[in-house]
Write a structure and sequence with these properties.
Strand order of the largest sheet: 1-4-5
Shape: rod-shaped
Number of strands: 6
Order of helices and strands: HHHHEEEEEE
Helix content: 55-70%
Largest sheet: 3 strands, antiparallel
Radius of gyration: 63 Å
Structural class: alpha+beta
Length: 217
Amino acid sequence: MAEDLNQQEPTAEEKAKFENDVLKAAEDAMKMEAEAKKADASDAQAEAAEQPAEAAEKPAEPAEAAPSAEEVLKQQLADATDRNLRLMAEFDNYRRRTAKEQLELIETANGKLLEKLSEVQDNFERAFASENKAQDLEAFEKGMQMIYNQFAKILTDAGLEQIDPTGAEFDPNCHEALMQQPSETVPEGHVVTVFQKGYKLKNKILKTAKVIVSSGK
């Protein structure tokens, strides 16, 4: 029994060798761990170096380019042309509408005037009817005077004014001289006789008066 125990107990040399083996294994393990860490760090650096390269290789998305000055001017010109065409169309419509309204006003005014003048015509026709012919010339003249007054009032109400420049100074803007004749009573350059009266409508000359002008004594 004692012999077996003596045989199992390691010698000093074996102990020393075992300790050396353990130390070597520990050193190898530490060395392998250090190399593994170094390899991991190298891989990380390589990966980091590759990422910018990939980013550089990937083309950047182009940013939307700002319009050039020429394009801006072309757009402004197109907008101005469009506004001009719209204004021209609106003005043309306004002109047509205004012209139509003015024509309607003139036709309405003419219609009212003609309606009144038709009454004068009716009175003339009644006066000249055979059954209404008066034997008395004085009564007939009175009837004609009444029709004339009616006619003159219609024209005056419409704005027509008669020009009778008898004795007035000759005015070439309102008068038309037919001739000159000497006069003892009318000064030179004044109207002696009105051959035909003139007419104006609200200060606008429609027809000049035909006159004879005095040449003096």
